[in-house]
Write a structure and sequence with these properties.
It is a single chain. The chain has 351 residues and is of the alpha/beta class. The protein contains 9 helices and 12 strands. The strands form 3 sheets. Strands 9-8-7-10-11-12 form a 6-stranded parallel β-sheet, with helices on both faces. A 4-stranded parallel β-sheet has the order 3-4-5-6, with no helix packed on it. The relative contact order is 0.12.
Length: 351
Amino acid sequence: LALRAEVFFAADGAIATLLQAEFPGLTCLSLPGYRVKYAGSGWKLPLKMLGQAPRILQAIRQERKWLKGVVAKFGINGVISDNRYGLHHPDIPCVFMTHQLTIRAGNVFIERLLRSFNFRFINHFTECWVPDEPGEMNYAGSLSHPPVMPSVPVRYTGILSRLHPVPAMVVPNHLFVSISGPEPQRSLFENRLIDQLSHYNFTATVVRGLPGEQRMVPSTNNLRFFNHLPAGELEKEMAKADLVISRSGYSTVMDLARMGKKSILIPTPGQTEQLYLATYLQGKGFALAGKQENFELEALLDDARAFFAKDGMSSDSLSAGPGHLWLGANTGANDKLPLLVERFVQQVLNK
């Protein structure tokens, strides 16, 4: 938009609702998602994904057909595709954006097959953008740094987040809780959290991850509930928290990195990528990993005090003096995305 490009976005469901709230002046085109269903446990995931493969392949063929029609109707000159394999066109520059060059499946043989499948589609695009740091100190580990790469150029963008750090007074022991993900796991996690937060002696803000939902959970003196928050309000609420509790989805990880917040990551059961990210980031010292199955708030908070003690936390509070930096990249100084977008727009205009 800053480069005076006319921007369209394509989505459906909750994602479309979120984007329309953030960018009310843009045109939203309806494009159904893949609607991938996840297994309830990690070992079932390969079979679950295999069973959905014909439907996903059909969806990819349909979105290729859809894009040809959109390009012809609106005169689209370039495409940036967020993990949508069919959104490439032979006549215009098309970028594929993903952090999953490796798709975790819990089985080495299946992961190799998935990587071959993944690269076969990525190689139809002009280039691939990966929202991560290029070196050894990164956020996605082997997901974004596989032993072999696609044949098209791969560019690492740095952190990709709609959030920006804002000045705020951190409230001692205040929690910011972000709930997200597919049902029924979202609701199972929410119910367990609310039950335990009702006995928490301090304050907490809970964002339920339900944009467009009309029904509200009543707030109390200590607990504030929101179905959804726009970026500006989300920044303020997160900034004043001593600690964040959230899923370990990669978009959430990028938000935490940008905001530089201490966090407890709770993977969605059955999502091997989230389990890997939580374990990997704990190993890097960026976040503490927990489990939904045996989630105990007070025990995890005790673990967090010990885990983050190296950052200057006192033994009786979640508070830290200097703040917890994720690679120091929360300043945005390492972000390469604006330059990549500018170069892409120029490429589109010059074609």
